[in-house]
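#structure-requests
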Amino acid sequence: MLATAIQTYQQRVDHQLTERFSALAETAPQLKAAMTHGALLGGKRIRPFLVYSVGQMLGVALEKLDACAAAIECIHAYSLIHDDLPAMDDDDLRRGQPTVHIAFDEATAILAGDALQTLAFEIVTETVPGISCEQHLAMVRVLAKASGYRGMCGGQALDLASTNKQIDLDALTKLHNLKTGALISCAVELALIAANAPKDHYDTMMEFAHAIGLAFQVQDDILDIIATTEELGKPQGSDAESNKSTFPQLLGLDGAKHTAAQLIQEALSALAKLPYNSQLIADFARYIIERRI
């Protein structure tokens, strides 16, 4: 059931993105091609999955969730394009294919990231029947916060500042709650806004979101050690080569695995408080620390 849902939602958001890219005028064909390359390289589509699955759990029609799913994937794609740049992580491979600055050039990659970021906000403000202006405004607010200084960009800045330095567990946790966790939490929050979820349910689902966001990053750190380059779609051991602090480095491999499992248990405990059929989302939470990619 989970594998089928992941594939279904992946295909749905890819269709949404493909349609939107196709609709762009041929003003700058190379930029358009770079945006398409960066956004449609493949990938798990974790954030759109959360938008769709949480929204459906709360009774929201898929058509009301498409814009949110496409918008958050545009933000994620832009972040990866910029992360891969020589001035950042300097990676040549992403999902087993050349990164955007390798496939095109560095200037085009910067512009592709910029254009995907702004396209995300164009998409999330599209008129959607059944979604009010107030909901749209709330969606813009949480997407901007999760993407910028108080979220992903702030976390990336902390990551860059901590390279070649030893940081403690609290600092590493803060870094990844921003760099990785903020956008994962945002995916859940967009669905909650679309559903007009009651405040107590909203707060409980955000507990779930925070826990899986950090667990996702802990597992990524683990996979950088135990998975192959082929499985990862990027060079294995890149964190160690870049001299970055990681959860396995600070906690040991077994300690990191224990932390990831503990976070997922916290997420499942939060789900158990809610009066919904949350089986799919619970299965997804378990998948986060069982995956090899």
